[in-house]
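Here is one chain, start to finish.
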Amino acid sequence: MSIIVTGCDKGGGGKTTVALNIAAYLAMEGRDVVLMDADNSRDDEEEDPEGDASGLLALRGQHPELVQIHHAQGVGRIQSAIRSLAARFQDVIIDTGAGDTTELRSALKTAHLAVMPLAPRLFDQWAARRMARLLDDARFDNPGLEGLAVINFATTNWMSRRAEEARELLGQYKQFTVAAGVLYLRDPIELAQHTGRSVFEGGRACHKAADDMAAVMQAIIDKLGTQYRSRLNHG
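Its structure:
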């Protein structure tokens, strides 16, 4: 069993997309997975169905051929709700809203792993500093909490060194490690998401994005430990 939270002190890092792809990957491996939407920051009048985990799962519901990902919602202090889900499902993925929220702090106190998607730009590196402090705070109650930073929205321009520079800066933090895999900004990711699909379900157009995400998933599985890897490999 695993509890994974995707979170960051800043919006726009791709938390929801990463959460969906983690959930889909594990579900495609035969795991019984629930994705909790704990983003309390959205305006109720917003109509973008791709803007949160609930909307993406609703889109998936229109495509019964896709592997099942269960849906839950949580607001406020969600530790009890997370523990209840963990008793029913093999993997609990929690997508939190932007900022230092009650939901993010609650999830960090309960999770095995915090996955932090960060864009390779200066402002997100400041967000990494604040996330490091949140991880430190959470470990008073949850000393086994692991942290994994994921470089997201990296340019495919081979001349750019932003991803490498971001890795060097993020590598200075002791509170988390940086995934070796990088998530690049690729158009097919958005096209797949229009139907609630992960990059693993987007067909040949998504094969490069799927390779990117698969490398990140290996880092996630490594963080969850050898026992989890063994259970995953043996169904």
